[in-house]
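Why do we bother with holo predictions? Because pocket geometry can differ from the apo form. Keep that in mind while you read this record for adenosine-5'-triphosphate.
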Amino acid sequence: MIEQMIIRYGEISLKGKNRSEFEQRLLNNLRRAVADMPSVRLHKAGGRILADVGGADLEVVERRLASVFGVVSLSPVEVCPLTLEDMALAAVSILNSEHEGRKATFKIEVKRTNKRFPLNSLEVAAEVGGRVLDALDNLTVDVHHPDSTIFVEVRDDGGYVYGTKLPAVGGLPVGSAGRVGLLLSGGIDSPVAGWLSLKRGVELEAIHFHSFPFTSQRALDKVETLAQILANWAGRVRLHTVYFTDVQTEIRKHCPESLGITIMRRMMVRIAEQIARERKLLSLVTGESLGQVASQTLESIRTINAVTNLPILRPLITEDKVDIMKRARQIGTYETSILPYEDCCTIFVPKSPRTRPRVEEAEEAEANLDVPNLVKEAVRRTTQKTFVAEEFVESVLPMV
Ligand code: ATP
Ligand code: MG
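The structure, written out:
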């Protein structure tokens, strides 16, 4: 019975001297993903991680570990004594469960790191393959396009025999890339943008702009649910909820309606930048996608961007809405994102927003706003809440 699993983590191995820190981080994140399954034991083993399932449900462990950022692929593996008979037995058992007596082709691929083993790789492949053919008469060899490839690793501590390499979520372990501030709305896009950043190893703090009483408690609950879902993937997400009502009221009072959205966005970025400074966030992240709405034209993005030197990551900038929606379904945010709610942006939508606002126009329109004070007050009235993973993510893979 298969009780072990090989966990591979491609890109990390490229990271030279940071490698051991990366591996340790991944190991910690993997352990957290199976924290409720005490029989599962994980340890580093020569450029990869091995899991001993210890009687736990193999498929559950597989789905959990495949959802941890940084894992590229995994394989349930039979670890056996270093004899041709044992390695062949393991291969037979895997092929049997894959084909259950139906006609199929296979090949054996051998990697030998144990140089004391008396046979070389080709000889091991021939010997194990021959024994498989003797044992299972539904199978034939095809080295070019086999239905199944069985991998046999001849290592110092035993034979490792496995079939499929299951694709995992990929990316880099959360915590390996620094901290960023995600501008999180209740929409479909920004949670996906946050997830994609997590996938590249960042630690996430979410910043939400709330305009109570124009926006309801329900709208806020929804954002908190999204923060919780992201925390389930990330381990932990801190949410900053900014009191934005006064800013919006002032914009409405003092600025031309057609530039309202542009100026509101500029204020969001200014406030987020201040929070970033206090929380040592290295960058902001938004769910913007080119041309999706009036505020997401290149001119508009430039005018919004002009208020900050902080890098703003836009992981979805070139994505189509249908693809973003598909991703939202895969990561589990879609059902929450589509709940009806009022956004602070939707309640003040001008009848005809400028689609190509220039920087000078925006600056002129802001002349009657006390920008520094509005930013200061909004930051002062910001509240924080930390979400920690409360569900174990078991994604359906592959996620591309
Ligand atoms: P989303 O689905 O993420 O709301 P969207 O397509 O509705 O995106 P906009 O409403 O124009 O686009 O918002 C663009 C981006 O600005 C969002 O992706 C998000 O990063 C940020 N944003 C918008 N509203 C808020 C808000 N109330 N709080 C925090 N960030 C916001
Ligand atoms: Mg929105």
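The mean pLDDT is 92.
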